[in-house]
Structures are given as C-alpha cells and as structure tokens.
C-alpha cells in the first residue's frame, strides 16, 4: 500500500473490510510519517467530537449593550450622527488623511533620488510609479465614498432642499 492510499483510507474512516484494515495497520506500523499523520488526524477528530465545554450565549446581551451604550454616548456628547463615518472616523478625518497621503505622493516627485532614477530609468520607472499613485488615490477615494455614501447622500439631499426653498 502506498502512503497516499493509506492516508486516504485513514481520512475516509468508517468500516473497512478486514483485509484493507490489516493492510492499513501494516502500512502504519512501518511508515512513521503516515502513522504520525494518522495520529494527528485522530487527535483532531477527538477534539472536534465535542470535548469542548459549551460556551454561554453572550451574543444577544452583548450586542444590545453595545447599541445601548452607543446611543447614550451620542446623546451625551451631542454628536451629529451624519458627521460620523464608518468605524467611528469622521468625514473630516478621512479628508485630512487623504490630503496628507496626496501631499506625500506629490513630494515623492521632488526628491534627489527620484530625479536620478527618473533620468536613469526613463519611462520604465515613471509609468509604473504613476499608475501606482493613481490606483492608490483612486482606491482611497472609492473607499471614502463607499464608506460615507449614506452620509454624503443625506448631506447633499439636505443641501439641495435648502437651495430650493
């Protein structure tokens, strides 16, 4: 019996005919690597068979408390809900970080190392660098708009309603 066949039989489990069980036992007796894999498989089955203690169900109580505390926090601080973005980041924080990243990309093109590499490599350096910067800035803008779509649409809807009055 080959190693692959033996391990497949170990993984299949169930009732094997006597001759196949004998062949598997014989192979595992003389092949230490397959015996170790079979042993680890048996240990994993034992662990997954329910030897873990049951855990209490905290999910509903925990999520209710989180929602309740978040509501109390907003009420106490007087925060305007539409100014808070995804993950607790405000729109202002996203814009500031975006400007810092954009300015850091602009300063990339003014260094001495950039000038020497650009002269030496030519367009084989500038083209991939420009594509990388463009992809990063486009991705950052897409993430910003995607995570703040609800807030932005409410803001512009309210702005258009105020202009119509």
Task: Explain what this protein looks like in three dimensions.
With 165 residues, the protein is mainly α. The protein folds into two domains: 3-48, no CATH class; 80-164. The chain contains eight helices and no strands. Helix 2 (18-30) crosses helix 3 (32-48). The longest helix is centred in the last third of the chain and has 25 residues, at 123-147. The model is unreliable at 80-86 (pLDDT under 50).
Q: Roughly what is the average pLDDT, rounded to an integer?
A: 78
**Number of DSSP E strands:** 0
Radius of gyration from CA coordinates: 31 Å
**Broad structural category:** mainly alpha
Shape: flat
Distance between the termini: 85 Å
Helix content: over 70%
Q: Helix and strand string, N-terminal first?
A: HHHHHHHH
Q: State the domain count.
A: 2
Task: Please outline the major beta sheet.
Answer: none
Poorly predicted ranges (pLDDT <50, ≥5 residues)? 80-86
Provide a count of the helices.
8
Core attributes:
165 residues, mainly alpha, 2 domains
How do the strands and helices of this protein lay out in sequence?
Blueprint (H helix, E strand, L loop, with lengths): L2 H10 L5 H13 L1 H17 L10 H19 L13 H18 L3 H10 L1 H25 L1 H16 L1
Overview in brief:
This protein is mainly alpha-helical and 165 residues long. The chain contains 8 helices and no strands. It has helices at 3-12, 18-30, 32-48, 59-77, 91-108, 112-121, 123-147, 149-164.
């Amino acid at each position: 019996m080959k190693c692959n066949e033996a391990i497949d039989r170990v993984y299949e489990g169930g009732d094997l005919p006597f001759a196949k069980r004998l062949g598997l036992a014989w192979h595992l007796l003389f092949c230490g690597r397959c015996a170790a894999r079979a042993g680890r498989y048996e240990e994993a089955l034992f662990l997954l068979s329910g030897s873990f203690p049951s855990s209490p169900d905290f999910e509903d109580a925990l999520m209710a408390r989180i929602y309740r505390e978040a509501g109390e926090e907003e009420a106490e601080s007087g925060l305007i809900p539409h100014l808070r973005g995804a993950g607790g980041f405000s729109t202002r924080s996203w814009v500031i970080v975006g400007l810092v990243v954009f300015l850091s990309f602009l300063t990339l093109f003014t260094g001495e190392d950039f000038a020497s590499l650009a002269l030496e490599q030519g367009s084989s350096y500038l083209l991939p660098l420009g594509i990388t910067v463009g992809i990063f800035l486009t991705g950052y803008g897409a993430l910003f708009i995607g995570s703040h779509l609800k807030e932005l649409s409410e803001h512009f809807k309210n702005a258009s309603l105020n202009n119509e009055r």
